[in-house]
Amino acid sequence: MTIGHSEIARLIPHAGAMCLLDGVIAWDRDSIRCYSRRHKALDNPLRQAGRLGILCGIEFAAQAMAVHGSLAGAVSERPRAGYIASLREVICRGNRLDALEGDLVISATRLAGDDDRVAYAFTVGCESQELLTGRATVLLRVEVE
């Protein structure tokens, strides 16, 4: 089963242009691989002065983590907002994402977690180049209407 942009938009709390992932390549209980072309979009809400910096890749990775949580059943039916509480061992290999021609490939592997927090290792790459790696701890909260 292919998971495309519209299905991803139903799985995470991000809407409109802020939903940055175009598809899921593969996933299992512990990890996910996604792709995106939205680093080239002129209306990408993370752009500043017409540029998309390499650290914006952290948001692409965070959305991959959120999709994984929904698909793996690690969160409730309703998409939950998460807040990055900690970033560790972040390594950048480049300055910008918007100048890249190929699709971004975003991988995330769940390291630990419970109902309140989750930790992932992540990688953002393009073609055979690894651009951004690190670990993130995300605090989760239940959405209240």
- Which class do the helix and strand fractions yield? alpha+beta
Strand order of the largest sheet: 1-2-3-5-6-7-4
Would you tell me the overall average pLDDT?
89
Radius of gyration: 14 Å
| Gross geometry | globular
The ordered string of helix (H) and strand (E) elements is EHEEHEEEE
Most strands sheet: 7 strands, antiparallel
Specify the CATH class: Alpha Beta
The domain tally reads 1
List keywords for this structure.
40% strand; 7 strands; 145 residues; Thiol Ester Dehydrase, Chain A
Outline of the structure:
With 145 residues, this protein is α+β, with helices and mostly antiparallel strands.
Your description of this structure?
The chain is 15% helix and 40% strand. A hairpin with a 3-residue loop joins strand 5 (104-113) and strand 6 (117-126). The protein has one domain (3-141): Thiol Ester Dehydrase, Chain A. The protein contains two helices and seven strands. The protein is of the alpha+beta class and 145 residues long. The protein is globular and about 40 Å long. The model has no long low-confidence stretch (mean pLDDT 89). A seven-stranded antiparallel beta sheet has the order 1-2-3-5-6-7-4.
Please describe the topology of this protein.
Layout: E1 3-4, H1 5-11, E2 23-27, E3 31-36, H2 57-71, E4 81-92, E5 104-113, E6 117-126, E7 129-141
Antiparallel strand pairs: 1-2, 2-3, 3-5, 4-7, 5-6, 6-7
